[in-house]
Structures are given as C-alpha cells and as structure tokens.
Amino acid sequence: MISFIQGKVADSSENSIIVEAGGVGYEIFMTGASIEAALREKDIIKIHTYFHVREDAMQLYGFLTKDDLQVFRLLLGVNGIGPKAALGILAGLSADELRFAVLSDDAKTISRAPGIGKKTAQKLILELKDKFRLEDAFEQKLSHVQAEASAEEFSLDGSREAVEALVALGYSSTEALRAVRKVTDVSPDDVEGILKAALKNL
Fold it and tell me: What is the predicted pLDDT for the residue at 151?
C-alpha cells in the first residue's frame, strides 16, 4: 500500500496531477482545490494517498491532509459510494463541512455535491452518523480555523460558544459555523457580540 508520495509536481490535468518521486511519475487523482494548491507549491510536496485496485485499473487518490484522507476512507465505507463519488463529495464539501452536515442531518448540503442525490445523501448520513462525534467535529473545525487565522481573529472558546448558541436556536451546525466564521470585527472574548454579528450573516 502506498501511504504517501513526496516529490515535485511535474504535470497536471483537470482532475489529476503527476508527482515525480525517485525518478517515477505518479498520477494522483485529486479535487480541483487540492490540485490548485499543489500547483502553487514550488518545492517538495507531500500527498497522502489511497491506492485503489480493481480488475481493469490501479489508481491513486491524493489528499493534502491526513484528515481529508480519513474522511475519504469513511465515505468509501458507505454502500454504493466508490472512489470517484467520494472524491466528488470532497470536491463540493470540505471534510469539516461534511462532518457537520452529517451530524445535523443536513441532506440538502450533502446533495449539493456532484452526482449525489437526496436519497444517497440520506443514506450517507445514516451510515456515517455514528462515525462522527460533534465534540470532535468542533475541535477539528476550530483547529483548522486557528491554523488559518490568528487568535485575535478567531477565539476557540468564544466562537465555540457562539456556534453552540446558534445551534440551540435551531440553525444547523453547518450554517452556524459559516456565520460565525464570517465575523471578524468583534472582540474574540465577546460571545454576545459574535452571536449578534453572526445572526446578521444568516
């Protein structure tokens, strides 16, 4: 099994990149956003991979983070979802968005992914709901946000309380997180201020 490939991007197409490692060019299928990010990297890049083998083909699917790869594997465990469909879902939704959509029974958000209808989205929710915990989903999302923004822009405790308050008001976790993430001009310790500003984004 190939766990990851580390090398330089040698070429790309609409849905894959070729990474040269050890004198060998590996074609790796990725989401459009991941391909764009990989192409911006001028130095050595590390791609976490899933090696898919079937009778007529052997293919590598790649991800920039272990988290994305883990969620991809979970999607493959859903009956009827293969690698291409799973990659399509992650092209339309980030791993964080998918977690919250599953945990909040948000089939509408999941069905926005290419090739995923309402019935498939509902089945996905049913089969994955016990694989995710809301507390872990919050930690993952907020840790990703912390990596992208400074502590002044996004407070772990204040933002979490605001998100939880919005969920208590009846908004989905996905909607609540998006609204709170847009708030940038309120003190990170001002939970009430974050909440009021977030409500304007809904």
Answer: 39
